[in-house]
Amino acid sequence: MVNLVKVSKQEDFGKVAAYIVSSLVQTSPRAVLGLATGGTPVDLYKELINIFNQGVISFSKVKTFNLDEYVGLPADHPASYRAFMNKHLFDHIDIDMNNTHVPNGQAANPDQECSRYDAMLSESVIDLQVLGIGHNGHIGFNEPADQLMPGTHVVDLLPETREANARYFQSVDEVPAQAITMGVGTIMKSRQILLMVRGADKAEIIHRALTGPITTLCPASLLQLHPNVTVLMDGEAGRLF
Ligand code: GLP
Predict the structure, then answer these.
(1) Is the full-model pTM beyond 0.90?
(2) What residue segments make up the domains of the chain, in order of their start?
(3) Does the beta carbon of 134 lie inside 6 Å of ligand 1?
(4) Closest residue by CA, ligand 1 atom 5
(5) Which residue out of 12, 136, 160, 236 is catalytically annotated?
(6) Contact 67 CB / ligand 1 (< 6 Å)
(7) In which element (H, E) is residue 2 found?
(8) Which alpha helices (DSSP H) does 122-223 contain, by range?
(9) What number is the ipTM of this complex?
(10) Are the C-beta atoms of 139 and 107 separated by less than 8 Å?
Protein backbone atom coordinates (compact mmCIF):
# COMPACT_ATOMS: atom_id res chain seq x y z
CA MET A 1 0.00 0.00 0.00
CA VAL A 2 1.31 3.43 -0.94
CA ASN A 3 0.58 6.43 1.28
CA LEU A 4 1.17 9.81 -0.30
CA VAL A 5 2.31 12.70 1.88
CA LYS A 6 2.69 16.10 0.26
CA VAL A 7 4.37 18.93 2.14
CA SER A 8 3.93 22.49 0.99
CA LYS A 9 6.73 24.14 2.98
CA GLN A 10 10.25 23.17 1.91
CA GLU A 11 11.48 23.24 5.51
CA ASP A 12 8.92 20.58 6.43
CA PHE A 13 10.27 18.07 3.89
CA GLY A 14 13.27 17.01 5.96
CA LYS A 15 11.36 17.40 9.23
CA VAL A 16 8.55 15.01 8.25
CA ALA A 17 11.06 12.45 6.97
CA ALA A 18 13.12 12.76 10.16
CA TYR A 19 9.98 12.35 12.25
CA ILE A 20 9.26 9.02 10.52
CA VAL A 21 12.83 7.74 10.94
CA SER A 22 13.35 9.03 14.49
CA SER A 23 10.01 7.63 15.71
CA LEU A 24 11.17 4.20 14.59
CA VAL A 25 14.58 4.57 16.24
CA GLN A 26 12.94 5.76 19.44
CA THR A 27 10.62 2.76 19.66
CA SER A 28 13.14 0.26 18.21
CA PRO A 29 16.64 1.29 19.32
CA ARG A 30 18.10 -1.68 17.42
CA ALA A 31 16.39 -0.72 14.17
CA VAL A 32 18.01 -1.64 10.88
CA LEU A 33 17.88 1.31 8.50
CA GLY A 34 18.40 1.20 4.76
CA LEU A 35 19.88 4.54 3.71
CA ALA A 36 20.12 6.49 0.48
CA THR A 37 22.39 9.18 -0.90
CA GLY A 38 21.79 11.99 -3.40
CA GLY A 39 20.56 15.52 -2.84
CA THR A 40 17.06 14.54 -1.71
CA PRO A 41 17.78 12.96 1.72
CA VAL A 42 20.30 15.61 2.84
CA ASP A 43 17.66 17.52 4.85
CA LEU A 44 16.48 14.29 6.45
CA TYR A 45 19.99 13.67 7.77
CA LYS A 46 20.32 17.30 8.92
CA GLU A 47 17.09 17.00 10.91
CA LEU A 48 18.10 13.63 12.36
CA ILE A 49 21.30 15.25 13.65
CA ASN A 50 19.18 18.04 15.22
CA ILE A 51 16.94 15.50 16.90
CA PHE A 52 19.98 13.54 18.10
CA ASN A 53 21.49 16.74 19.52
CA GLN A 54 18.31 17.33 21.49
CA GLY A 55 19.04 14.06 23.27
CA VAL A 56 15.81 12.46 22.14
CA ILE A 57 17.27 9.48 20.28
CA SER A 58 20.40 7.39 20.20
CA PHE A 59 21.81 5.53 17.22
CA SER A 60 24.25 3.51 19.33
CA LYS A 61 22.51 0.21 18.56
CA VAL A 62 21.18 1.09 15.10
CA LYS A 63 22.52 -0.77 12.09
CA THR A 64 22.54 0.77 8.62
CA PHE A 65 22.90 -0.56 5.09
CA ASN A 66 23.35 1.85 2.21
CA LEU A 67 21.80 1.16 -1.13
CA ASP A 68 24.79 1.59 -3.35
CA GLU A 69 28.33 2.74 -4.08
CA TYR A 70 30.35 3.61 -7.16
CA VAL A 71 32.81 1.00 -8.39
CA GLY A 72 36.40 2.18 -8.34
CA LEU A 73 36.11 5.23 -6.10
CA PRO A 74 38.21 5.18 -2.94
CA ALA A 75 36.05 5.50 0.20
CA ASP A 76 37.67 8.88 0.93
CA HIS A 77 36.88 10.30 -2.53
CA PRO A 78 34.48 13.20 -1.80
CA ALA A 79 31.90 11.82 -4.27
CA SER A 80 31.89 8.32 -2.80
CA TYR A 81 28.71 7.37 -1.01
CA ARG A 82 30.71 6.30 2.05
CA ALA A 83 32.17 9.82 2.25
CA PHE A 84 28.68 11.28 1.72
CA MET A 85 27.20 9.27 4.59
CA ASN A 86 30.03 10.09 6.96
CA LYS A 87 29.81 13.78 6.13
CA HIS A 88 26.03 14.15 6.19
CA LEU A 89 25.15 11.80 9.04
CA PHE A 90 27.49 9.28 10.63
CA ASP A 91 30.18 11.73 11.80
CA HIS A 92 27.57 13.68 13.77
CA ILE A 93 25.70 10.97 15.68
CA ASP A 94 26.59 8.26 18.19
CA ILE A 95 26.40 5.39 15.70
CA ASP A 96 29.03 2.64 15.93
CA MET A 97 30.83 2.90 12.57
CA ASN A 98 31.12 -0.92 12.55
CA ASN A 99 27.34 -1.00 12.29
CA THR A 100 27.30 1.20 9.18
CA HIS A 101 27.50 -0.68 5.90
CA VAL A 102 28.16 0.71 2.44
CA PRO A 103 29.27 -1.57 -0.39
CA ASN A 104 33.03 -1.38 -0.88
CA GLY A 105 33.48 0.22 -4.29
CA GLN A 106 37.17 -0.55 -4.23
CA ALA A 107 36.92 -4.28 -3.67
CA ALA A 108 39.37 -6.16 -5.89
CA ASN A 109 36.51 -8.45 -6.91
CA PRO A 110 33.23 -6.50 -7.07
CA ASP A 111 31.10 -9.64 -7.57
CA GLN A 112 32.55 -11.13 -4.40
CA GLU A 113 31.81 -7.86 -2.64
CA CYS A 114 28.16 -8.17 -3.74
CA SER A 115 27.99 -11.65 -2.21
CA ARG A 116 29.59 -10.39 1.00
CA TYR A 117 27.03 -7.55 1.18
CA ASP A 118 24.13 -9.93 0.56
CA ALA A 119 25.41 -12.32 3.23
CA MET A 120 25.33 -9.46 5.76
CA LEU A 121 21.90 -8.37 4.58
CA SER A 122 20.57 -11.89 4.90
CA GLU A 123 21.24 -11.75 8.65
CA SER A 124 18.90 -8.76 9.12
CA VAL A 125 15.64 -7.45 7.80
CA ILE A 126 15.64 -3.77 6.95
CA ASP A 127 13.00 -2.13 9.15
CA LEU A 128 12.88 1.10 7.18
CA GLN A 129 14.41 1.71 3.77
CA VAL A 130 14.91 5.33 2.70
CA LEU A 131 14.80 5.79 -1.07
CA GLY A 132 15.12 8.55 -3.63
CA ILE A 133 14.18 8.18 -7.27
CA GLY A 134 16.22 8.83 -10.40
CA HIS A 135 14.72 10.75 -13.32
CA ASN A 136 14.46 7.47 -15.21
CA GLY A 137 12.70 5.71 -12.33
CA HIS A 138 15.76 4.01 -10.85
CA ILE A 139 15.87 3.14 -7.16
CA GLY A 140 19.28 2.64 -5.62
CA PHE A 141 21.18 2.13 -8.86
CA ASN A 142 18.66 -0.37 -10.26
CA GLU A 143 18.40 1.10 -13.73
CA PRO A 144 15.44 0.52 -16.08
CA ALA A 145 16.02 -2.76 -17.92
CA ASP A 146 14.23 -5.81 -19.29
CA GLN A 147 15.20 -7.71 -16.16
CA LEU A 148 15.97 -6.60 -12.63
CA MET A 149 18.16 -8.42 -10.13
CA PRO A 150 16.86 -9.36 -6.69
CA GLY A 151 20.18 -9.19 -4.84
CA THR A 152 23.22 -6.95 -4.69
CA HIS A 153 24.97 -6.73 -8.05
CA VAL A 154 27.26 -4.68 -10.26
CA VAL A 155 25.40 -2.43 -12.66
CA ASP A 156 26.44 -0.40 -15.70
CA LEU A 157 25.20 3.12 -15.14
CA LEU A 158 23.10 4.62 -17.93
CA PRO A 159 24.40 7.80 -19.59
CA GLU A 160 21.51 9.85 -18.11
CA THR A 161 22.40 8.66 -14.60
CA ARG A 162 26.06 9.57 -15.02
CA GLU A 163 24.94 12.96 -16.37
CA ALA A 164 22.58 13.55 -13.42
CA ASN A 165 25.36 12.73 -10.93
CA ALA A 166 28.10 14.67 -12.76
CA ARG A 167 27.47 17.61 -10.41
CA TYR A 168 29.40 15.78 -7.69
CA PHE A 169 32.46 15.36 -9.95
CA GLN A 170 34.69 17.69 -12.00
CA SER A 171 33.13 16.39 -15.20
CA VAL A 172 30.79 13.66 -16.45
CA ASP A 173 33.81 11.64 -17.64
CA GLU A 174 34.91 11.27 -14.03
CA VAL A 175 31.63 9.64 -12.98
CA PRO A 176 32.33 5.92 -12.65
CA ALA A 177 30.73 3.75 -15.31
CA GLN A 178 29.64 1.11 -12.81
CA ALA A 179 28.17 0.85 -9.36
CA ILE A 180 27.30 -1.81 -6.81
CA THR A 181 23.66 -1.66 -5.85
CA MET A 182 21.32 -3.50 -3.54
CA GLY A 183 18.78 -5.35 -5.67
CA VAL A 184 15.05 -4.73 -5.88
CA GLY A 185 14.37 -8.01 -4.04
CA THR A 186 16.18 -6.72 -0.94
CA ILE A 187 14.49 -3.33 -1.21
CA MET A 188 11.06 -4.96 -1.50
CA LYS A 189 11.74 -7.17 1.53
CA SER A 190 12.18 -4.19 3.82
CA ARG A 191 9.35 -3.80 6.30
CA GLN A 192 8.68 -0.17 5.52
CA ILE A 193 9.82 2.18 2.76
CA LEU A 194 10.13 5.95 2.80
CA LEU A 195 10.47 7.27 -0.75
CA MET A 196 11.49 10.93 -0.80
CA VAL A 197 10.83 12.98 -3.93
CA ARG A 198 11.59 16.63 -4.36
CA GLY A 199 11.45 19.13 -7.24
CA ALA A 200 9.49 19.81 -10.42
CA ASP A 201 11.87 17.65 -12.46
CA LYS A 202 10.68 14.55 -10.57
CA ALA A 203 6.91 15.20 -10.97
CA GLU A 204 6.44 13.11 -14.10
CA ILE A 205 8.51 10.13 -13.08
CA ILE A 206 6.95 9.80 -9.63
CA HIS A 207 3.48 10.04 -11.16
CA ARG A 208 4.35 7.37 -13.72
CA ALA A 209 5.96 5.13 -11.09
CA LEU A 210 2.94 5.20 -8.82
CA THR A 211 0.06 5.29 -11.31
CA GLY A 212 1.49 3.68 -14.44
CA PRO A 213 2.10 0.01 -15.22
CA ILE A 214 4.35 -2.03 -12.94
CA THR A 215 7.36 -2.63 -15.13
CA THR A 216 11.09 -3.27 -14.86
CA LEU A 217 11.44 -0.34 -17.27
CA CYS A 218 10.50 1.87 -14.31
CA PRO A 219 12.02 0.12 -11.27
CA ALA A 220 10.23 2.42 -8.80
CA SER A 221 6.89 1.15 -10.14
CA LEU A 222 7.54 -2.11 -8.26
CA LEU A 223 6.89 -0.17 -5.08
CA GLN A 224 3.18 -0.30 -5.94
CA LEU A 225 3.39 -3.93 -4.81
CA HIS A 226 4.93 -3.18 -1.40
CA PRO A 227 2.63 -3.33 1.64
CA ASN A 228 3.97 -0.24 3.42
CA VAL A 229 5.38 2.63 1.38
CA THR A 230 5.21 6.30 2.32
CA VAL A 231 5.96 8.66 -0.54
CA LEU A 232 6.99 12.05 0.76
CA MET A 233 6.81 14.73 -1.91
CA ASP A 234 7.20 18.46 -1.95
CA GLY A 235 4.53 20.48 -3.77
CA GLU A 236 6.46 20.56 -7.05
CA ALA A 237 7.19 16.85 -7.21
CA GLY A 238 3.61 16.07 -6.24
CA ARG A 239 1.92 18.46 -8.65
CA LEU A 240 0.39 15.68 -10.82
CA PHE A 241 -1.40 14.01 -7.91
C1 GLP B 1 21.56 8.42 -7.33
C2 GLP B 1 21.39 7.41 -6.20
C3 GLP B 1 19.93 7.16 -5.91
C4 GLP B 1 19.19 8.48 -5.78
C5 GLP B 1 19.27 9.24 -7.08
C6 GLP B 1 18.53 10.55 -7.07
O7 GLP B 1 21.48 7.87 -8.58
N8 GLP B 1 22.00 6.16 -6.51
O9 GLP B 1 19.82 6.39 -4.72
O10 GLP B 1 17.86 8.25 -5.43
O11 GLP B 1 20.65 9.49 -7.32
O12 GLP B 1 19.34 11.54 -6.50
P13 GLP B 1 18.86 12.99 -6.13
O14 GLP B 1 18.18 12.87 -4.81
O15 GLP B 1 20.14 13.78 -6.00
O16 GLP B 1 17.99 13.47 -7.22
Answers:
(1) yes
(2) 2-234
(3) yes
(4) 134
(5) 136
(6) yes
(7) strand 2-7
(8) 159-164, 184-189, 203-211
(9) 0.95
(10) no
Distance 37 CA to ligand 1 centre (A): 6
Closest CA to 38 of 66, 75, 9: 66
Q: Which of 26, 96, 90, 99 is nearest to 65 (CA)?
A: 99
For residue 40, the ligand 1 atom closest to its alpha carbon is 14
pLDDT in tens, 137-177: 999 999 999 999 999 999 999 999 999 999 999 999 999 99
| CATH 3.40.50.1360 given to domain 2-234 | yes
Give the Cα-Cα-Cα angle 74, 101, 46 (nearest 5 degrees).
90
* pLDDT for the residue numbered 75: 81
Alpha helices in 89-236 (DSSP H): 110-121, 159-164, 184-189, 203-211
Instruction: Please report, as a single letter, which amino acid is at residue 207.
Output: H
DSSP line for 37-82: -SSTTHHHHHHHHHHHHTTS---TT-EEEESEEETT--TTSTTSHH
Tell me the CB-side half-sphere exposure of residue 190, using CA atoms within 13 A.
29
Which parts of the chain sit beneath pLDDT 50?
none
Summarize pLDDT for 217-236 with one digit per residue, the tens: 999 999 999 999 999 999 99
In the chain the first and final C-alpha atoms are separated, in Å, by 16
Is 165 an active-site residue? no
139: phi > 0 → left, psi -120 to 50 → alpha, else beta; which?
beta
Q: Give the list of residues 6+ apart from residue 77 with CB closer than 8 angstroms, or none.
A: 83
CA 146 to chain CA centroid, nearest Å:
22
